[in-house]
Amino acid sequence: MDPHRKAFTSYSDARQEINILNLIQDPHIHIVKLVGVLLQPLSIVMECAPLGSLQNTIEDYSRNGVKIPLTILQLIIQQV
Known about the structure:
Layout (H helix, E strand, L loop, with lengths): L2 H21 L10 E6 L2 E5 L7 H10 L6 H10 L1
Antiparallel strand pairs: 1-2
């Protein structure tokens, strides 16, 4: 992919995610909060999820060929 196109796509994706996160900043919704945005380099700063990212957890279990136990799923869902 053309480097300019890739940069534009990354920028557009980040703006879309930031806009969505801004819309759902409600203390009653259990979602990781948007803390801020850095322009150089373009970065989204979010609060820490103490149990780690959902993607990493799913990848770890998949890599090991293990189904995610219900208790782990419940803990993950409580973070989201």
